[in-house]
Write a structure and sequence with these properties.
Layout (H helix, E strand, L loop, with lengths): L3 H6 L3 H13 L5 E6 L8 E5 L2 H11 L3
Antiparallel strand pairs: 1-2
């Protein structure tokens, strides 16, 4: 979803990305947490859903984006 270099060069990216991911994920079910792993080389975003089935739907939708 991003690179660490992009995260360092754009001060608003973390906030914008978190909002965008949460906006998409709540369409699948209630979201408890969205965490941007800003230094991860693969641009990882962690999302915790209230229900496991919603998390599985999210993996299918978002994996590899």
């Amino acid at each position: 979803m991003f690179t660490p270099a992009e995260m360092r060069s754009d001060v608003n990216l973390k906030t914008e990305l978190k909002a965008d991911v949460e906006e998409e994920c709540v369409k699948l079910g209630p979201v408890e947490l969205v965490k941007i792993c800003e230094n991860h080389p693969q641009g990882v975003v962690l999302v915790r859903f209230k229900d496991t089935k919603d998390a599985h739907k999210c993996i299918e939708l978002m994996n590899g984006r």
